[in-house]
Specification:
By secondary structure, the protein is α/β, with parallel strands linked by helices. About 15% of the residues lie in helices and about 30% in strands. The chain is built from 2 helices and 8 strands. It has a 6-stranded mixed beta sheet, with helices on one face. The longest helix has 19 residues. The protein is globular.
């Protein structure tokens, strides 16, 4: 079992230009993913993979209760996960800052469409160090 992150945007450019060993933007999807992709708001849809291939090696929390927060000593996180999540947030904030619309969904494999909750995220109120994904959430980004 693993996480999957899907991003959609009205930006017409190629997000794969941001690919590194820690993060990959890919346009390939299978039919099982369509139920989640259909919840996204914009026509350019990307699968966002991490160094593991899936989306597991990003910063994730099961629950939104702790909110966004920078890494802390008492909760060990891999440096690559922190860096990969920071790259994702930098790409998203760059798109939003340039006037593009962006949303994404973070879902646990086998998660159901009706379990996904919306979450408004102002990029001006969150930093790349504090950003993390919350399982089964649909992030709606705004300036």
């Amino acid at each position: 079992m693993c996480y999957s992150v899907y991003l959609s945007t009205d930006f017409e450019g190629d997000l794969s230009q941001h690919n590194t060993e820690l993060i990959r933007f890919d346009k390939a999807f299978n039919d099982a993913e369509r139920q989640v992709i259909d919840l996204l708001q914009y026509h350019n849809v990307w699968y966002v993979g991490s160094r593991a291939g899936c989306s597991c090696t990003f910063r994730h929390l099961h629950s939104i209760e702790l909110g966004f927060g920078e890494p802390v000593d008492w909760y060990a996180e891999d440096q690559d996960e922190i860096e990969a999540t920071g790259i994702f947030y930098k790409v998203v904030s760059g798109l939003v800052g340039a006037g593009s619309q962006v949303d994404c969904i973070d879902i646990w494999a086998g998660g159901k469409r009706d379990q996904i909750k919306q979450l408004a995220v102002k990029v001006s109120s969150t930093t790349k160090e504090a950003f993390r994904f919350f399982e089964n959430h649909h992030f709606i980004f705004s300036p």
